[in-house]
């Protein structure tokens, strides 16, 4: 793409944010020769839920995966630009990707519990990172994580059962609990409800709302209602560009960019 | 939802101290483990590849000598009187019989004795090539010609440098006399290492310097032709039946189970089957390629059926539907549309199955294909052996000269297998289609 | 005329029937203006099939069983004194007889054989004439029938297709016949064996020395058939030593190939393993016997183990393990690839290193598939013959020392059935009993392993 990207519309409230947990500057992602994300700059605030919306193929998930360097696992993917977590460049050679991913957790589109017991699913992260000192310490971490994910009461009597035996919604909350267990600072959610039924979706949305404030949360969704329900900040992506970024209410009631308005009102997507 | 946990309570014991020295050490240890694990994986592959390389190098470094043989120069006087042959005999209708009757053995022995004092440095079969000379050129009769004749095994060993002179004489394998004989030949420039053409032209022999693989090679070809002639049509027909015709019933299930199980039956069991059924029950001839081919065909059949089924399954149903839609019958759809598309896949599977059969030894031992066969087999019912069995037989021979022959025969076998697999890969690449 | 000549005549008749029926059908089409149900080529094919198939069936059945009938009739015509005894003598006699008749050898050594040659020739030619004549008759009837019945609305194509279907179905029965052939021949000979040696002794006895003596008064002439040392040797080499080599190497190779190697490297390394799988077992056996076994012995000597055998379980087992690597590797490769990518992503996103992900998530998830693959590999290893024949030795030792020589079921089968033997001696029959055990064990292992693998595949579909 030779021409300059269209100017991103950033609402004033967000322009001078100084409480940013993560900042991205001029981030581009290439899949081989194809440019999937084009020079995106954004600040993620630690106190709010930020939603990335846009039609499928707009690069929002690809961009999200840059925040914990999951694009590293794809051989042909290449990331340019600068992403910082608390002022540290996460693509710096001194940054340890293992620690980064513990600090920036991720929840995937399809629930992916490990084929282990519920207890072991939660204990996995603390164990590999050496967070728990003792069995009782681990027990407490498991209980706290499951409680925070709103799953404790449902599974406390069957912690030895396989995580894959749970229902879809429970599995997704188990995955959120698993991410919480290593005490991350940021949680990335890549369309976490797209594989769930409406009731399970409601529960997960409720959970996201409860987790707000404790963790910086970034959620990718193609469901605009969901973005409106759970987020305080919304970024609209289109064709690899960040078109508009502002408070959720503003974006949905008074979008400033034409493309955002067209998308919100359902003209494309 | 019951979120009873107070807002400020952190998981565990407060925020994880990612930057603490202890945590840094831990991460370093984890990365070291990661590197070790990765290196282990590479090591495993290296061991496997290294073994393969070691095997090939050992065999080639032993085996290339098998394509060479020591030859001794002998002035041969083709004296008609001594041979009991006249020019007229060779022109006449009984030339072959006359040649066979002539005493070339004595002629050669005497010629060598005259020149070197004895004929021990020549192979027992050296005179055969002298006779071939005369057969090829009757004019030689009455003339004298310097010929390079096959040397005795000890000359071969010495010429190839296999004898370690530091060993005590009694363990060297050659006597002091033989060594001095050899040195004498050397100084007379009457010994050389030549290409062992007999190795690729002759059949087995009890003399290592005369033994060849051609007989076993022909036996292998005959056996494999029988295998192919039986297993390919039956295998493809079975696959077509199972994929396109078979109703879902008990019999079909039994056929499927049989095929899957036969694919896993150890090859030696097929040898027992061949022995009990073909030899003892039907009274077919022992050691014959036809029985070996039948036995291997039963062994190869499941491989062909399974790969042919996979090939048939990969033909998109849209092609079949299109042909059926314009009124083609089921048989026409198969012969006109399905088979041509599936054929490369079927052939690839067949070659893989056949090359496995070509390298198979154990079942053939049981049906008597380990017999000593010094003739090149002329048909599928005549006694024969095959390349792998020849390798097995030679590996058991005590003669020092058979070691390099065994390796050389392995080289021939591997070359044939490599060529077959090359064809399979070529077919796969050339006709690979993506739907 | 030989049987082949008669077959040729039948073929010519069939082709003639094809041409005749085809032309007749074409003539119908032209003359009556009636619409033919099938194209003339199908009428022709139908006639061809009718003329050829029954005759061909007769000829091929005869060529399979004919030899035995002619042979026994010939023997029956010989005077009592000239008749060979049953068993090996009869085999040799017939072998020589056939060789003379075929012209493979110029003259018979045994005068009785020489006497039998003309009788054999005469019997054979009588039968050939009878069968050949019958075949030609069948061909004529078949072709004529098809010709007479061909008319415009004859459904020749339907009939041809039906025949084709039947042929295909018959071909697929060969697999069943083979299975039955194996089971019946093994069972039959084994029952014969167990009528002489108690099955209990065979299965639980610990002394194996089947060398039945040549003279009946020789010491140890009875032979001992306790197969436990063989079973142990088979398990020791195939399921213990070979697997100790193959499982770690195969599994780590698969892990490296699927998880670490770049696509370019994988393109080179995978065929390398396939080459390892394509090397004939006799080559491995030769290598084990000539290179590995002496190395193992020298090593044992150098660390002070006197009397180390030059044929050792370790040499055979480790080479067999190398041979099995590609097998385990490809099974593990399949199993690891079947684990959903989401599992791997999930673990990596937790901050696990790739090796932690492999060890704690991927391998446990793929374990049923890997175990199934290992069981298949064991079944293949215990059925492997040439390596153990060439490198493990023939001594039936009941030992756990890998430096000693042990023998296996397959090595004994080869040992017992090669060389000169009386066919129905206990020694020979015991090979079939061993084969039966091997067959049953590998079959059970395979069925179980395939069920495990299948259940595992379904879990991730």
Can you offer a commentary on this structure?
The complex is a heterotrimer of chains A (269), B (435) and C (461). With 269 residues, chain A is an alpha/beta fold. Chain A has helices spanning 12-15, 60-64, 97-103, 118-129, 135-148, 152-155, 168-180, 198-211, 224-230, 248-253, 258-264, and strands at 9-10, 20-31, 34-45, 49-53, 77-85, 88-89, 104-107, 186-190, 216-220, 233-238, 241-247. In chain A, strands 1-11-10-4-9-8-7 form a seven-stranded mixed β-sheet. Chain A has a four-stranded antiparallel β-sheet with strand order 3-2-5-6. The radius of gyration of chain A is 19 Å and the shape is globular. Chain B is mainly alpha-helical and 435 residues long. In chain B, 64% of the residues lie in helices and 5% in strands. Chain B has 19 helices and three strands. Chain B is flat and about 95 Å long. A two-stranded antiparallel ribbon of chain C has the order 1-2. Chain C has 15 helices and two strands. In chain C, helix 7 packs across helix 10. With 461 residues, chain C is mainly α. Chain C is flat, with a radius of gyration of 31 Å. Helices cover 76% and strands 1% of the residues of chain C. Chains in contact: A-B, A-C, B-C.
The main β sheet of chain C shows up as: 2 strands, antiparallel
Highest CATH level, the class of the largest domain in chain C:
Mainly Alpha
Q: Within the largest sheet of chain C, what's the order of strands? A: 1-2
Overall residue-averaged pLDDT value of chain B: 85
| CATH-derived architecture of the largest domain in chain B | Orthogonal Bundle
CATH topology of the largest domain in chain B: MetI-like fold
Defining key terms:
heterotrimer; A: 269 residues; alpha/beta; Rossmann fold; seven-stranded mixed beta sheet; four-stranded antiparallel beta sheet; 11 strands; 35% helix; 26% strand; globular; B: 435 residues; mainly alpha; MetI-like fold; 3 domains; three-stranded antiparallel beta sheet; 3 strands; 5% strand; phosphate transport (chain A); Phosphate transport ATP-binding protein PstB (chain A); transport (chain A); ABC_transporter-like_CS (chain A)
């Amino acid at each position: 793409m030779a021409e300059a990207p269209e100017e991103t519309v950033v609402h004033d409230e967000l322009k001078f944010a100084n409480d940013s947990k993560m900042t991205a500057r001029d981030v581009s992602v290439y899949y081989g020769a194809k440019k999937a994300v084009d020079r995106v700059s954004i600040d993620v605030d630690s106190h709010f839920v930020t939603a990335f919306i846009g039609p499928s193929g707009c690069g929002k998930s690809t961009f999200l995966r840059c925040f914990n360097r999951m694009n590293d696992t794809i051989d042909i993917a290449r990331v340019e630009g600068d992403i910082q977590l608390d002022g540290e460049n996460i693509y710096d050679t001194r940054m340890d990707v293992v620690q980064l991913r513990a600090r920036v957790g991720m929840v995937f589109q399809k629930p992916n519990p490990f084929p282990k017991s519920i207890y072991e699913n939660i204990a996995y992260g603390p164990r590999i990172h050496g967070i728990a000192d003792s069995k009782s310490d681990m027990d407490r971490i498991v209980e706290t994580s499951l409680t925070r994910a709103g799953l404790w009461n449902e599974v406390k009597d069957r912690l030895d059962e396989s995580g894959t035996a749970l229902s879809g919604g429970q599995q997704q909350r188990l995955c959120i609990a698993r991410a919480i267990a290593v005490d991350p600072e940021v949680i990335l959610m890549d369309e976490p409800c797209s594989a769930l039924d409406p009731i399970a979706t409601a529960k997960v949305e409720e959970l996201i709302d409860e987790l707000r404030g404790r963790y910086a949360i970034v959620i990718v969704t193609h469901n605009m209602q969901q973005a409106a329900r759970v987020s305080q900040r919304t970024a609209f992506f289109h064709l690899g560009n960040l078109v508009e970024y502002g408070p959720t209410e503003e974006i949905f009631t008074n979008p400033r960019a034409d493309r955002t308005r067209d998308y919100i009102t359902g003209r494309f997507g | 939802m019951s979120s009873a946990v107070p807002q400020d309570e952190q998981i565990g014991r407060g925020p994880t101290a990612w930057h603490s020295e202890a945590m840094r050490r831990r991460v370093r240890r984890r990365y070291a483990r990661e590197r070790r694990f990765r290196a282990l994986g590479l090591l495993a592959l290296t061991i496997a590849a290294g073994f393969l390389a070691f095997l090939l190098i050992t065999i080639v470094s032993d085996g290339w000598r098998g394509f060479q043989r020591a030859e001794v120069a002998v002035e041969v006087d083709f004296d008609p009187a001594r041979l009991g042959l006249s020019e007229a005999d060779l022109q006449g209708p009984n030339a072959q019989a006359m040649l066979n009757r002539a005493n070339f053995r004595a002629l050669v022995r005497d010629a060598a004795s005259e020149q070197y004092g004895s004929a021990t440095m020549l192979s027992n079969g050296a005179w055969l090539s002298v006779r071939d000379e005369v057969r090829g050129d009757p004019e030689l009769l009455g003339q004298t010609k310097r010929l390079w004749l096959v040397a005795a095994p000890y000359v071969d060993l010495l010429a190839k440098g296999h004898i370690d002179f530091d060993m005590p004489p009694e363990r060297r394998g050659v006597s002091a006399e033989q060594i001095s004989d050899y040195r004498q030949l050397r100084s007379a420039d009457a010994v050389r290492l030549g290409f062992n053409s007999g190795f690729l032209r002759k059949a087995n022999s009890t003399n290592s310097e005369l033994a060849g693989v051609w007989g076993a090679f022909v036996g292998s070809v005959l056996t494999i032709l029988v295998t192919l002639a039986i297993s390919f049509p039956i295998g493809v027909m079975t696959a077509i039946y199972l994929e396109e015709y078979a109703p879902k019933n008990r019999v079909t299930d039994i056929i499927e189970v049989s095929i899957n199980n036969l694919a896993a039956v150890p090859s030696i069991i097929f040898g027992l089957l061949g022995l009990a059924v073909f030899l003892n029950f039907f009274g077919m001839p022992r050691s014959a390629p036809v029985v070996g081919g039948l036995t291997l065909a039963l062994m190869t059949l499941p491989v062909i059926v399974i790969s042919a089924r996979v090939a048939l399954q990969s033909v998109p149903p849209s092609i079949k539907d299109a042909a059926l839609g314009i009124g083609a019958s089921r048989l026409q759809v198969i012969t006109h549309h399905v088979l041509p598309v599936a054929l490369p896949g079927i052939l690839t599977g067949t070659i893989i199955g056949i090359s496995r059969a070509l390298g198979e030894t154990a079942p053939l031992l049981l049906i008597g294909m380990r017999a000593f066969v010094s003739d090149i087999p002329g048909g599928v019912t005549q006694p024969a052996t095959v390349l792998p069995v020849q390798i097995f037989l030679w590996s058991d021979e005590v003669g020092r000269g058979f070691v390099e022959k065994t390796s050389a025969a392995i080289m021939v076998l591997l070359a044939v297998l490599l060529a077959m697999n090359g064809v399979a890969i070529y077919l796969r690449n050339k006709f690979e289609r993506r739907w | 005329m030989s049987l082949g000549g008669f077959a040729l005549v039948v073929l010519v008749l069939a082709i003639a029937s094809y041409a005749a029926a085809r032309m007749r059908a074409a003539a119908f089409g032209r003359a009556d203006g009636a619409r033919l149900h099938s194209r003339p080529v199908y009428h022709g094919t139908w006639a061809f099939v009718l003329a050829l198939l029954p005759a061909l069936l007769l000829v091929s059945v005869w060529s399979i069983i004919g030899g035995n009938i002619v042979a026994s009739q010939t023997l029956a015509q010989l005077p009592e004194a000239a008749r060979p005894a049953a068993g090996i003598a009869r085999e040799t006699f017939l072998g020589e007889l056939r060789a003379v008749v075929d012209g493979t050898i110029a003259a018979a050594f045994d005068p009785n054989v020489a006497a039998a040659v003309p009788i054999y020739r005469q019997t054979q030619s009588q039968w050939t004439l009878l069968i050949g004549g019958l075949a030609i008759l069948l061909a004529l009837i078949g072709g004529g029938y098809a010709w007479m019945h061909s008319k415009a609305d004859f459904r020749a194509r339907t009939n041809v297709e039906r025949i084709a279907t039947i042929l295909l179905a018959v071909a697929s029965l060969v697999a069943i016949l083979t299975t039955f052939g194996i089971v019946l021949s093994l069972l039959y000979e084994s029952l014969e064996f167990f009528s002489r040696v108690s099955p209990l002794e065979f299965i639980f006895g610990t002394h194996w020395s089947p060398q039945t003596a040549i003279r009946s008064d020789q010491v140890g002439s009875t032979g001992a058939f306790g197969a436990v040392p063989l079973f142990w040797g088979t398990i020791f080499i195939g399921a213990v030593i070979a697997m100790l080599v193959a499982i770690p190497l195969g599994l780590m190779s698969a892990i490296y190939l699927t998880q670490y190697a770049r696509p370019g490297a994988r393109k080179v390394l995978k065929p390398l393993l396939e080459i390892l799988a394509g090397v004939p077992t006799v080559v491995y056996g030769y290598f084990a016997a000539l290179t590995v076994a002496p190395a193992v012995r020298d090593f044992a000597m150098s660390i002070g183990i006197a009397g180390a055998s030059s044929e050792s379980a370790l040499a055979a087992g480790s080479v067999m393990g190398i041979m099995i690597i590609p097998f385990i590797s490809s099974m593990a490769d399949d199993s690891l690839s079947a684990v959903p990518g989401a599992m791997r992503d999930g673990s990596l996103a937790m901050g696990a290193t790739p090796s932690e992900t492999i060890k704690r998530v991927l391998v446990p998830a793929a374990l049923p598939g890997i175990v199934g693959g290992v069981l298949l590999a064991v079944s293949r290893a215990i059925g492997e013959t040439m390596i153990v024949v060439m490198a493990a030795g023939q001594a039936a030792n009941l030992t756990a020392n890998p430096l000693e020589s042990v023998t296996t079921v397959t090595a004994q089968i080869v040992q017992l059935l090669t060389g000169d033997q009386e066919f129905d001696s206990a020694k020979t029959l015991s090979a079939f009993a061993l084969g039966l055990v091997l067959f049953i064990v590998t079959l059970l292992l395979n069925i179980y392993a395939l069920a495990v693998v299948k259940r595992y595949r379904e879990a991730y579909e």
